[in-house]
Fold:
Amino acid sequence: MLTHQQIWSAIDALAEREGITASALARKSGLDPTTFNKSKRATTDGRLRWPSTESVAKCLAATDTTIEDFVELMVPENERPRRSIPLIDLARASHKDAFDDDGLPAGEGWHESDLPAIADGETYALDVSSDDLLPLYRSGDRLIISAAAIPRSGDRVVLKTRQGVLHIGALKHVSDTSLELKAPQTSAPDQVIEMDDIAWMSRIIWVSQ
Structure:
């Protein structure tokens, strides 16, 4: 049986997985920013309000989340099935032999990390071991990366250039010939990278802190 608590908890968990608030998730989905606010989940006389099917469908589309993944988020994290995914320190991930041509783990230096099960089989994790990416990420954060998820404008991504440089940031604009990447550091300028210079690009689907 599906409960009111389960579906709202799944929406909150989806927002957390994206590294944003419930309000930001609504905005990203093209909805009113207050759609998922806690004040909207019950009336003043105590009657429960459920999110509409349309609002749920829009937030799944905006985050590239399957209905199976969404249902899994209804289960408390400590009760979800777990599996191992490859894990490497972000500093070592910059080495030229850390990934294959498709942006998947390769070479030495990878370990196994036990995380809640993720349906995507092309998933790995990067450990942030410094504060060089503040304020977006701090030392101790673990970035869960999907090589299968299609990045869209607004998504946070990790990409590698053909020169071997690893970049992390948020996609601001994408054209047929180039993309604009917002750097994690507030003071750093945005970067324009030519599509021909990109070896691979993968989406950051979740941040574990």
Observations:
- The radius of gyration is 18 Å.
- Strands lie at 82-89, 111-116, 123-127, 142-146, 156-161, 166-174, 178-182, 191-194, 198-208.
- The chain has a mean pLDDT of 88.
